[in-house]
Amino acid sequence: MRKIYITGSIVCIFLIAVITSSFIYMDKKSSRPAFSNGHIANLNTRGSSLESKTYQTSATLGAIGDVLIHDAVYKDAYNHGTYDFDKMFKPVMPYLKNPDLLVANQESMIGGKQIGLSSYPSFNSPYEVGDTLKEAGVDMVTIANNHSMDHGEKALLSAISYYNKLKLPYTGAYKDLEDSDTLRILTRNGISFAFLAYTYGLNGNVLPEDKPYMVNMFNINTVIQDIKNAEKYADVVVVSTHWGNEYERLPSPEQKEWAHMMAGAGADVIIGHHPHVLQPIQWIKTNGKQALVIYSLGNFLSGQIRDYKDIGGILIVKVTKKVSNKTKQVAIDSFSFIPTYVTSEDRENFRVLPLAQADKMGLVKKPESYTETMAHMSQWAK
Hints:
The structure is a single chain. By secondary structure, the chain is α/β, with parallel strands linked by helices. It has 2 domains: 1-43, no CATH class; 46-378, 4-Layer Sandwich (Purple Acid Phosphatase, chain A, domain 2). The protein has helices at residues 71-77, 86-89, 93-96, 128-135, 152-166, 177-180, 220-230, 253-265, 355-360, 370-378; strands at 3-13, 16-27, 35-36, 39-40, 55-67, 78-79, 82-83, 101-106, 140-142, 170-171, 184-188, 191-199, 236-242, 269-273, 278-286, 289-297, 299-301, 311-324, 327-345, 348-354. An 8-stranded mixed sheet has the order 1-2-11-12-13-14-16-15. The relative contact order is 0.15. Residues 1-49 have low confidence and may be disordered. Keywords: Membrane, Transmembrane, Transmembrane helix.
């Protein structure tokens, strides 16, 4: 049986119990709602009959791309024995705090300086990156990528320990089997979001033979089963995939095929990472609904420059949930996209700026303009 634990506050609106800020832990051995902090959680499956009530609610989900901390970046952040990445995020903080939920792809493990900081090709980043993500309003961190095992189990477990210290949820890599068997669900405005994350590989590194659960590896059949399971318990299924070809501005045929398969299985939002450049946004219509895929969100913060590698973005998706006549409908209504630009001066003073602002300031070299970027991202989103 599967036990479902809910932590957080419960607020009654029109006699409807709505979890305003929660994290659901699902032990695959139980399916029975359990007591948690004195509350009883009754979790309806998606599309199931509900009590007689009618209401409509909406929530926004934001996403940012690769946070990949090269040595130039963490050296710039160094400040009297600690590291300050807040200043790098500061110009876009208002945009990051706008969505009801925000997910970030932390590509380099924040194993901490005690392990030894390092950069390409084997990354290990300061703990303080996590502090900045928390300060920026990030609610979920995806950590399944080709650098997850750069410094082995030690760095991964150290990073996870720090996320737990920050009370910052993560997904895609895990400390133990129980952690791996826990489906991450966050709820905002009465809409529940499940988060899944996978990577195509580990740069030749291997998982411990007795711990294959440590990082979610991308296998389309496994992903489809996970999506089908997640949609039983959440209104919206968000899948982050580390896939594709580096520095390619268009997705591969495999990315397109897998995106359609995931949408067909029930994924609502698919967020791609790994190419380190932006790839277009596309609506996928299947099974009477539409899903949204961004094939790559590019670099949000990194030490990579030129050839579109310094451009990323903030994707914001609006979700609406309607409950009427004992049924519910959940739809991805619309999206907006704010392109961003990483600027620096002689590999110092790294900042993430809105691309439109950077363009007006003359910091952007053609063809990396705001106009070209928006045209590129929207070409399939008709």
